[in-house]
């Protein structure tokens, strides 16, 4: 990927990128979306005639070739660039220090997502007891794209101001990184651990205009200036955001070590889900939302679904575990930037497949039941001309002045590495190791070589450290002939469907292959844990609707083949094994209480098998057949449960 000099090809704007002010109400459009615009702009008061905000994202740092835009970096890569990370920290600190009463403060921007349930940019017309975020909704991915862009623009503006405050003899290094400064992402599918600069360091050293300083780390938590607009318990007693919190002697503390242990335990599950979503799901209506739909048989997962699992695991009783208050935690933005990246990667692999159809569950500005498509407005986010962004106008990341490492060439639209093939190769390099299809492809090649020279010994096969990570290709090579037949093997998946409001709040569905402890506090670290699916909701339980998710089983089953507990992955072998060993359990958000499965409204858990053809090269994807249900584990609506 080309790298250009930000000093040579970028000009730091002498004028602000500031939010455009529009003082008059927009005329009602005659398009199919005019009804939604009328609801959003409804003259229930004269608020809409006041100034509203428009923005375009950061439009600085572009390269010399058409379409070259700066890349959002993985947080660990940004940390390695000392000047860039330092400037980002300073800008983030200043952003968080803005008065909560200011709409463009950190509090004001985070509050768009959920609490405090008040109008931003004079956009209203839906449910006043909710935020603007579009969860359990086909607009989930497209709505968060302009949300991240306005957040990014405000951080950049603070960074620009800070650069100008440095003495001239110390300013150059920050001038050099400013034009291409973009918000980072946390790629938990490649490395689930939270970096210490985000999760452990409560204080951090920075090079400020006044010199070297130690400051409260703005990535570790956000400290509220006033909690009166956060009435919900226990968050009305939390002076700052917490992750995996521990309550002791009336005080909350985050537990970074416990959080990382829990994330590492489900890392293989996360990687398997992401790889499957990017390589198998071809319809946006399936990949884009966790809302159950009849139009996607055999496809129970979504980017929103795996997103929920990160929210719930990271929060575990803290802010990230609830829709209403999650955006106040700085890790929310690292996580959602990664979700936007996965969305962009999916678009790069599936050009032309970005089509939207659905019905809204309702937000602060969109009425429940509204028919949604590519032209549905995404309030409260307005373009510089005052019109609301839509999923159509938010299609390309470069519209907002950024790209990602895997999609930069696709966004440029030229060069030898452009197109879906390059994006597929990037996905295989990032996520292929540790997932069944890529590991089995490599294992097959190793087996052919070792068999030819008589070095293939069954005793050399070893399982992976974690049950939900596929064994190494070297280990799988020794059982290759038991699993792969004429380039094909069986993928096994646990499909989950449940009512989002089943427990009046966020809850976790754990899947085990074997026995597990009685205490739900121990489930996150169980050796028999295959994976966890989290149902993320608002504090009041949210929408009364069915949502779906998955826990892939194949990696765990391959480990059982390697250890000799299973002879192969054929249905006649696997189904009896799962009937005896596959178990489910449900716990509340913080793991504080187990829930009787019969009390989980709408819960259905089944297992399907799919014949998969292995890819032959790194630029190819595995080819999945049609899933077939092989086992029904739980069906609460029909009164059936094996567990």
UniProtKB/TrEMBL annotation:
GO terms for biological process: melanin biosynthetic process. Its EC number is 1.14.18.1. Keywords: Copper, Melanin biosynthesis, Metal-binding, Monooxygenase, Oxidoreductase, Signal. It catalyses: 2 L-dopa + O2 = 2 L-dopaquinone + 2 H2O; L-tyrosine + O2 = L-dopaquinone + H2O. Residues 135-152, 329-340 form the Tyrosinase copper-binding domain. One of its GO terms (molecular function) is tyrosinase activity. Its cofactor is Cu(2+). Residues 1-25 form the signal peptide. Belongs to the tyrosinase family. This is tyrosinase. It comes from Drechslerella stenobrocha 248. The lineage of its organism: Eukaryota, Fungi, Dikarya, Ascomycota, Pezizomycotina.
